[in-house]
Amino acid sequence: MSKSKSPKKEQSSILPQIEHLLTEQTSAILEALDAKLSAQDRRIDEGFAAQDKRLEEKFVAQDIRLLAAVDKRFQKMEERFAKSLDELTKTLDKFLKRLSDIEEEFVFMKEDLKRVKAVLREKLGVSLD
Asked: What global pTM score does this model have?
Protein backbone atom coordinates (compact mmCIF):
# COMPACT_ATOMS: atom_id res chain seq x y z
CA MET A 1 0.00 0.00 0.00
CA SER A 2 2.89 2.26 0.20
CA LYS A 3 3.16 2.50 -3.57
CA SER A 4 -0.37 3.73 -4.27
CA LYS A 5 -1.28 7.26 -3.52
CA SER A 6 -3.80 8.03 -0.96
CA PRO A 7 -7.10 9.40 -2.18
CA LYS A 8 -6.57 12.61 -0.30
CA LYS A 9 -3.16 13.19 -1.86
CA GLU A 10 -4.47 12.31 -5.29
CA GLN A 11 -7.37 14.69 -4.84
CA SER A 12 -5.12 17.53 -3.72
CA SER A 13 -2.90 17.14 -6.81
CA ILE A 14 -5.89 17.04 -9.20
CA LEU A 15 -7.61 20.13 -7.78
CA PRO A 16 -5.07 22.64 -9.11
CA GLN A 17 -5.26 21.00 -12.54
CA ILE A 18 -9.06 21.15 -12.51
CA GLU A 19 -8.89 24.74 -11.32
CA HIS A 20 -6.50 25.59 -14.12
CA LEU A 21 -8.70 23.86 -16.71
CA LEU A 22 -11.81 25.61 -15.39
CA THR A 23 -10.01 28.97 -15.53
CA GLU A 24 -8.98 28.33 -19.14
CA GLN A 25 -12.49 27.21 -20.04
CA THR A 26 -14.00 30.28 -18.33
CA SER A 27 -11.56 32.55 -20.16
CA ALA A 28 -12.40 30.91 -23.49
CA ILE A 29 -16.15 31.24 -22.82
CA LEU A 30 -15.76 34.88 -21.76
CA GLU A 31 -13.65 35.70 -24.84
CA ALA A 32 -16.20 34.07 -27.15
CA LEU A 33 -19.04 35.88 -25.39
CA ASP A 34 -17.12 39.16 -25.58
CA ALA A 35 -16.52 38.67 -29.32
CA LYS A 36 -20.22 37.93 -29.92
CA LEU A 37 -21.31 40.92 -27.84
CA SER A 38 -18.83 43.18 -29.67
CA ALA A 39 -20.17 42.00 -33.02
CA GLN A 40 -23.72 42.57 -31.82
CA ASP A 41 -22.76 46.06 -30.57
CA ARG A 42 -21.30 46.88 -33.99
CA ARG A 43 -24.47 45.68 -35.72
CA ILE A 44 -26.63 47.72 -33.34
CA ASP A 45 -24.43 50.81 -33.85
CA GLU A 46 -24.59 50.33 -37.62
CA GLY A 47 -28.38 50.00 -37.38
CA PHE A 48 -28.61 53.21 -35.34
CA ALA A 49 -26.32 55.01 -37.79
CA ALA A 50 -28.45 53.86 -40.73
CA GLN A 51 -31.62 54.91 -38.89
CA ASP A 52 -30.08 58.30 -38.08
CA LYS A 53 -29.18 58.77 -41.74
CA ARG A 54 -32.71 57.89 -42.88
CA LEU A 55 -34.23 60.26 -40.30
CA GLU A 56 -31.84 63.04 -41.33
CA GLU A 57 -32.81 62.55 -44.98
CA LYS A 58 -36.49 62.66 -44.05
CA PHE A 59 -35.96 65.81 -41.96
CA VAL A 60 -34.11 67.49 -44.82
CA ALA A 61 -36.90 66.57 -47.25
CA GLN A 62 -39.51 67.83 -44.79
CA ASP A 63 -37.55 71.08 -44.27
CA ILE A 64 -37.45 71.60 -48.04
CA ARG A 65 -41.20 71.03 -48.32
CA LEU A 66 -41.90 73.41 -45.42
CA LEU A 67 -39.64 76.11 -46.85
CA ALA A 68 -41.28 75.75 -50.26
CA ALA A 69 -44.73 76.13 -48.68
CA VAL A 70 -43.63 79.15 -46.65
CA ASP A 71 -42.04 80.65 -49.77
CA LYS A 72 -45.31 80.23 -51.69
CA ARG A 73 -47.25 81.92 -48.89
CA PHE A 74 -44.77 84.81 -48.76
CA GLN A 75 -44.99 85.16 -52.53
CA LYS A 76 -48.81 85.33 -52.37
CA MET A 77 -48.59 87.83 -49.52
CA GLU A 78 -46.13 89.96 -51.53
CA GLU A 79 -48.48 89.89 -54.51
CA ARG A 80 -51.43 90.96 -52.35
CA PHE A 81 -49.31 93.70 -50.76
CA ALA A 82 -48.13 94.93 -54.17
CA LYS A 83 -51.73 94.96 -55.43
CA SER A 84 -52.93 96.86 -52.35
CA LEU A 85 -50.06 99.32 -52.67
CA ASP A 86 -50.87 99.83 -56.33
CA GLU A 87 -54.53 100.48 -55.52
CA LEU A 88 -53.53 102.91 -52.76
CA THR A 89 -51.18 104.71 -55.14
CA LYS A 90 -53.95 105.04 -57.74
CA THR A 91 -56.35 106.35 -55.10
CA LEU A 92 -53.79 108.90 -53.90
CA ASP A 93 -53.11 109.97 -57.48
CA LYS A 94 -56.83 110.53 -58.07
CA PHE A 95 -57.15 112.44 -54.81
CA LEU A 96 -54.15 114.65 -55.58
CA LYS A 97 -55.50 115.29 -59.08
CA ARG A 98 -58.84 116.37 -57.67
CA LEU A 99 -57.09 118.54 -55.06
CA SER A 100 -54.91 120.24 -57.65
CA ASP A 101 -57.96 120.74 -59.92
CA ILE A 102 -59.84 122.36 -57.02
CA GLU A 103 -56.84 124.57 -56.20
CA GLU A 104 -56.53 125.59 -59.84
CA GLU A 105 -60.24 126.35 -60.02
CA PHE A 106 -59.96 128.35 -56.79
CA VAL A 107 -57.14 130.43 -58.32
CA PHE A 108 -59.27 131.09 -61.41
CA MET A 109 -62.29 132.02 -59.29
CA LYS A 110 -60.13 134.34 -57.18
CA GLU A 111 -58.92 136.10 -60.32
CA ASP A 112 -62.49 136.30 -61.66
CA LEU A 113 -63.64 137.80 -58.35
CA LYS A 114 -60.85 140.39 -58.52
CA ARG A 115 -62.00 141.35 -62.01
CA VAL A 116 -65.64 141.58 -60.86
CA LYS A 117 -64.60 143.81 -57.95
CA ALA A 118 -62.54 145.96 -60.28
CA VAL A 119 -65.53 146.34 -62.66
CA LEU A 120 -67.88 147.17 -59.76
CA ARG A 121 -65.43 149.72 -58.40
CA GLU A 122 -64.87 151.23 -61.86
CA LYS A 123 -68.44 151.22 -63.12
CA LEU A 124 -70.45 151.69 -59.91
CA GLY A 125 -67.87 153.18 -57.59
CA VAL A 126 -68.49 150.46 -54.95
CA SER A 127 -65.57 148.94 -53.11
CA LEU A 128 -66.10 145.45 -51.67
CA ASP A 129 -62.75 145.09 -49.86
From this structure: 0.48
3-state secondary structure of 92: helix
Helix, strand or coil, per DSSP, at residue 1: coil
Question: CA-to-CA distance for 100 and 108, rounded, in angstroms?
Answer: 12
Angstrom distance (rounded) from CA 33 to CA 25: 12
pLDDT (tens digit per residue) in 51-87: 999 999 999 999 999 999 999 999 999 999 999 999 9
Residue 116 near residue 128 (C-beta atoms within 8 A): no
| H or E segment and range at residue 102 | helix 7-123
Q: 32: Cβ–Cβ under 8 A, 6 or more apart, which residues? A: none
